[in-house]
Design goal:
Layout (H helix, E strand, L loop, with lengths): L15 H6 L7 E5 L5 E6 L4 H12 L1
């Protein structure tokens, strides 16, 4: 899995606009996006290692 990834955490309480923008309806929610900003995958809850790896590989290609 080549490349670097940025991680950003937001608080749905202090930043509800961003939560709404990305469709966050439950915590935790993980949104995997490409460098250009398009969403590859959205996970509600903790994704499996395989699902997360697949999403990150898709985002980096």
């Amino acid at each position: 899995m080549p490349g670097k990834f940025d991680y950003r955490e937001i608080s749905t309480a202090s930043d509800p606009e961003t939560a709404i923008k990305y469709g966050v309806q439950a915590v935790p929610t993980l949104v995997v996006r490409t460098a250009s900003g398009s969403t590859v995958s959205t996970f509600t809850g903790v994704p499996s290692k395989t699902d997360l790896r697949n999403a990150l590989e898709k985002a980096s290609s």
